Structure formats: structure tokens, C-alpha cells
Amino acid sequence: MKFEKTKEVLNQLVADLSQFSVVIHQTHWYMRGPEFLTLHPLMDDYMDEINDQLDVISERLITLDGSPYSTLSEWAEHTGIEDEKGRWDRTIPERMEILVKGYRYLADLYQKGIEVAGEEGDDSTQDIFTGFKTDLEKKIWMLQAKLGKAPEIDA
């Protein structure tokens, strides 16, 4: 079958994007501090972006005759993003660091997808991966700037 490795990366992304949406949602719910009124609604935008990516990735997988993970147990079994119970004692900067870590993980996975799709000659999926990686790198830059740090995209 064509694009088997690409489909594996797509399905990994299904699990990881699903999990990361939950991580962002947890940040949205458990955030406290002076920046709450600004950051709380911003987390809605972040979740929307990740969920939009999830939809595109899942639909591309289906287009390639794949079957996206679609249950909580499948996502939990296959995600590479850590799960943590909600807690009130994290500062806003700590929460932003967790988001940066998740965005970096996803950007790296998109890079792997770019390489795999290129090797398998799937230009369309490679294009999707490239665009989403670019979007995440911008998010990393913005979160790092909020934390007073350089983006460190090429570190």
C-alpha cells in the first residue's frame, strides 16, 4: 500500500493533537493570575487552531484510506504528550512552558511527517505538514516572547 509511513504519522498526530487540545483546555480552566482576563480567551483560540489541524489531519488520513484513532482510549494509548491532572498551584509562566513543550513536540512530529511524506512522494500531505509546522513555530515564538525568551526554533 502507498503512504504507509505517512499514514502512521497522520494517526500519531490524531492522538497527539487530541491530547494537546485537552492540555490547552486544562490551561484554560486552571489558569489564575493577573493575566487571566487576557490569556483565558486566548486559550479558546489556541484550542480552535489545534482542533482545526486535527480535522484536516484526520480527513487527510481518511482520504489516504486510513482509519484515524477516534476513542479516548486510542488517543491515550498512542499519544506522546504527557497527561497530568489539573492543579491550581501552577503559575501562568509554568503553564505557558507546558504549552511551549507541547508545541515543540508537535512541530517535531510535523517535521518527521514532512520527511516521511517526501520519501513516499505524498506532496499533498507534505504540504499540509509544512503549513502546520510553520503555524506552530509562530506560536512557539509568541509564547517564548511572552516568557521573555528567544524562540529557539533552530537551537
End-to-end Cα distance = 37 Å
> Which sequence of SSEs, written as H and E, runs from N to C?
HHHHH
Number of helical elements: 5
Quaternary state of the chains:
single chain
Strand count, sense and barrel status of the largest sheet are: none
Bulk shape: globular
Structural class by SSE content: mainly alpha
Keywords:
155 residues, mainly alpha, 74% helix
Short note summarizing the structure:
By secondary structure, the protein is mainly α. The protein has helices at residues 4-30, 36-63, 72-78, 92-120, 123-146.
Explain how this protein is built:
Helices cover 74% and strands 0% of the residues. It is mostly helical. The N and C termini lie far apart (37 Å). The protein is built from 5 helices and no strands. Helix 1 (4-30) packs antiparallel against helix 4 (92-120). The mean pLDDT is 97. The protein has helices at 4-30, 36-63, 72-78, 92-120, 123-146. It is globular and about 55 Å long.
